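Final report, results section. Input specification for complex C-07:
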Amino acid sequence: MDISFKIPYFISMFPKILQLFPETIKVAFWAFFLSLFFALVLAIIRQYKIKGLYFLSSVYVSFFRETPFIGQLFLFYYGFAQVSKTIRSMSPFTALIIALSANYCAFMSEDIRAALNSVEKGQYEAGLSIGLKPLSVLKRIILPQAARIAIPGLSNNFISLLKSTAIGFMIGYKDMMAIVSMETSRSYRFLEGYTAAMLLYWGIISLLSYIQTQIEFRLNRIY
Amino acid sequence: MDISFKIPYFISMFPKILQLFPETIKVAFWAFFLSLFFALVLAIIRQYKIKGLYFLSSVYVSFFRETPFIGQLFLFYYGFAQVSKTIRSMSPFTALIIALSANYCAFMSEDIRAALNSVEKGQYEAGLSIGLKPLSVLKRIILPQAARIAIPGLSNNFISLLKSTAIGFMIGYKDMMAIVSMETSRSYRFLEGYTAAMLLYWGIISLLSYIQTQIEFRLNRIY
Amino acid sequence: MVDVKELKKSFGKLQVLNGISFHLDPGKILVLIGPSGTGKSTLLRCLNYLERPSNGIITIGNVTVNARAAKKKEIYHLRSNTSMVFQNYHLFKNKTALENILEPLLSVKKLSPSFANAEALRILDEIGLSEKKDSYPSQLSGGQQQRIGIGRAIAVNPKVMLIDEPTSSLDPELVGEVLHLLYKLAAKHTTMIIATHEMEFARQIADHVLFMEHGQIVEEGDPMTLFTAPKKERTRQFLQKFSLNL
Amino acid sequence: MVDVKELKKSFGKLQVLNGISFHLDPGKILVLIGPSGTGKSTLLRCLNYLERPSNGIITIGNVTVNARAAKKKEIYHLRSNTSMVFQNYHLFKNKTALENILEPLLSVKKLSPSFANAEALRILDEIGLSEKKDSYPSQLSGGQQQRIGIGRAIAVNPKVMLIDEPTSSLDPELVGEVLHLLYKLAAKHTTMIIATHEMEFARQIADHVLFMEHGQIVEEGDPMTLFTAPKKERTRQFLQKFSLNL
Amino acid sequence: AGCSSRSASSSDKEDASKKPIIISTTGEHAFFSETNKKGKLEGFEIDVWTEIGKRLNREIQWKTAGFPGIIELLDSGRVDTVADQIGITEERKEKYYFTDVYFYVPYRIVVAESNNSIHSVNDLYGKKLGLLSNDIAYSYFDELDPEQKIEYVNYDDSTGVPADVAMGRLDATLMSSLHIDTVKKESGLKIKGVGEPVYTEDNGYPFQKTKEGKLLRDQVNGVLKELKEEGFMKKTALKWFGFDPME
Ligand SMILES: Nc1ncnc2c1ncn2[C@@H]1O[C@H](COP(=O)(O)OP(=O)(O)OP(=O)(O)O)[C@@H](O)[C@H]1O
Ligand SMILES: Nc1ncnc2c1ncn2[C@@H]1O[C@H](COP(=O)(O)OP(=O)(O)OP(=O)(O)O)[C@@H](O)[C@H]1O
Ligand SMILES: [Mg+2]
Ligand SMILES: [Mg+2]
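Structure output:
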């Protein structure tokens, strides 16, 4: 036989992987909302070159975007643990969310910055001209228009995040991919395991993508 | 202190990691240019809903964006190898470039699509009105304007790509990160190893980011 | 030559063009007047299929397109016979004033670079913007942008020019100059369809005038008759304000 | 009250405003005329610091800002005393016609939603666009967008309105209506500075006229004198075309 | 997989005895398969296979990859076997032909240096035990801990596990007793091995379940038997580990 692919084993993987779905989604959602928030702050500071914070935020983005995530995670979870009792007693769950948020917000801030940049200057001026404060203009005029441009990039990041939770396994956090790796290293049936995982991820993320498409459609309608 | 940080070991890591720099950069550049090209094609098909290709390209993007890369790589390099002699005799270098390109072009196409979407409809119409064919309008009018919006997202992707080459170790391709994990697997001095890697990546990618900033500055000047 | 039969267009439930038909001989200037939101811009945009009409037959030069069975090729052909000046200019934002005018010369008409350059500079001079040749649209005043828009359309050198409010941002001096420019084009047998709300400009330039309202032609005729002795009550009423203002 | 002293502004090497000074009493209407690219829009934009002047002192109502030492607070204060109608409208693209007008009422003036709504609908009615209240800017004709722009600026109910080419896309009927609208505002003591190239409109609405060229005031005076008996040769020349055209 | 593969395999057969044996390994497994400073592979597995190659008169070629890549290299037919301390289990036997056991690896409990309360599996009840995903410990713990009283914490690879033990995030982990001292020495971590070995892992070389796989497995088995009898295995083990695990 040229191909060894054991269908029953492949099928048996689905329920096992799905059992860990909550672990994946919990971390991903927490990290997504945290990083979205901080990304927004970073993007605004950088796009509008807000004095005093611009340099700091640039260094932050540079560091977290330009160094490997695994290094960030280890440095935080093992390196800082040596000086901080809080971190030493931190659960892998919390540590993972913190590390992922800190990392992804740097990437996401770049997507948001580009989207802010895509809104014509005239919209900002019009907002100021009716007496809105810059932050209000941002909130009421610029961000709603930037959203439709930012969404594909942010959605890219959310999808990556959902998959990145797998890295948590390095510090002992088990997500969907972790169970694949555990199960398959016992049986050495990696193809079956990974293929099952792929189908599951595809199914789950397709749902999210569908939501993305719907939001984009609604936002684009009026332009 | 529970974990010690051995400075000489830390320093000794730098030359070792740097030795593999060419391997990292070779794969990253090839994969980046290939995926940029295909991302462009995908983005255009999807943004302008080109008949006959739209559905196919949507499925492609959906599959490659929404399934774990490690699964894609394994399925391609190990799964398909069971039926294809070409793949069986393919070098890890080539396979890695193909798999990374196939994956990243899906993500990058979303960034490009958003950027195309950010260019006003009027620009497209003006192009058509002077007698340009749609593809020429795209090339001469839309893409140059979309570029400044696409660049932060594409640069995010390029940076991720540069780090993703590490996954090549799964199929036997050794890059800068591979050497870190090899070195530290015996000594368990992973903090020293990863910190060294972080600094090196930071340095290298900072250079690229600097280029990004310069390009963005030039492109934004006239808006 | 332009011939339009029963042109209709709606946005959702809103019927914007309600069956427009007219005929225009080569080298003639047709002017569209009518209240804001009446469908003048939409009509111009339909004529080169930037907006897809729902019904009607459009003939421009040697191309005829039936809205019910429009083929891609026909549409390109139609567009290559026309050029358009947009109400809100739509200059290429990534190109300087000069490059905006060069674009049709180089990419569509495929002139040699040196020849195209000379021609573009001549046009820039004609619209009085030689000094601004290296400015980007974001660095131009409203009137300057409008003139570049006209210059770009002239560079196409088409059979038919579709011109939407060419003088809206121009002062009286420049209105006179644009008038002059368009006269010269007409003398070279360029057919023109111009939407405008400046009645004086319309009266001076038109060979034929359509007064539109609610997507229909209310009255048409030569400018002399239409402006001085309109037949319909609505036309009289519309033009009354014009005379009152004067 | 508006008082401007020695206002200067340049873009790179290009000196666009070359020391502009004028004074305007409350409730008066000042009209800026002059060739395209002369700095009319730039002047208006400098008055509320959308463009930072390089020199000059601007007083609007109770706020005085010196360009050489402008503070953020002063600038906000200045802006809250003014509203602006843009030459290219700049409607909020993510908001309907109604929402565009509601925005200053709700977010700046903090009216109660029901009260704001009634007020916005009244303004929409005044500019003749009640029917379009739920349309987005991309679904409006040029003239419709321009009127929403005016409506939005009216909603701010500022001490001073800065109005850039308010009638450029309007037909004679609507020009009459806008004229009427602005009269009413002036009667309510709103001070106005209007840049326009429609001389007839300028003549009818102005209390005072500035004729600008190359970023300088060439001549100023009441419209009667300036339009019928200009003192400077350049003014006469500029206005000649206006009379010629008519 | 029709005629082309059949003809390929028939031609393979003719010179099968001359073809090199290709073996995958991680090159990052202390004492078994390491990469030295010059980038060359060395270790117990390397020595054993060099000898097997000599005796079978076949060239040996190595392919390195991470785990589980080394296993997949075998599945995809790129290598003939895997040499990296692969444990034999019933489940894996379904998929591969294994050679006879050539090595026993005893696993011991590892705890923080300051911990004096853990000495055996029973002491682990109610405690946190870190295990790797590719540990074969699981098959033993069904017996050792039938009531699931131990709290298992799984890790993808071993990078952080000893550090977590030292820091007290874990109460214990299991480590091959061959490695405990080196890890301790090189990393400087304050950990120690305690008690008797919990279980031993049987190592063998896996071959694809094909005719060729079986053939080669049988040949290798023959050589392994010779090597054991002649004391080569013992000598090599002493060289790398300082003792003979087969005793
Ligand atoms: N994309 C659209 N969707 C919905 N309605 C639209 C759209 N474009 C235009 N309309 C409506 O169609 C009508 C005709 O618009 P058009 O731009 O043709 O008017 P116009 O005669 O050029 O007016 P103006 O003199 O103000 O420029 C208007 O009522 C406008 O609101
Ligand atoms: N951002 C900019 N960068 C460089 N030059 C600019 C910029 N904005 C305006 N200009 C130049 O400044 C001059 C004055 O422009 P402005 O828009 O004030 O003219 P205007 O009097 O309003 O003209 P119009 O009647 O055509 O609207 C013009 O020559 C224009 O090219
Ligand atoms: Mg119009
Ligand atoms: Mg202006």
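Chain D has a mean pLDDT of 93. Chain D touches chain C at residues 11, 33-38, 41, 87-88, 132, 139-144, 147, 164-165, 168-176, 197, 199-201, 204, 238-239, 241-242, 244-246 (CB under 8 Å). This concludes the modelling results for the funded period.
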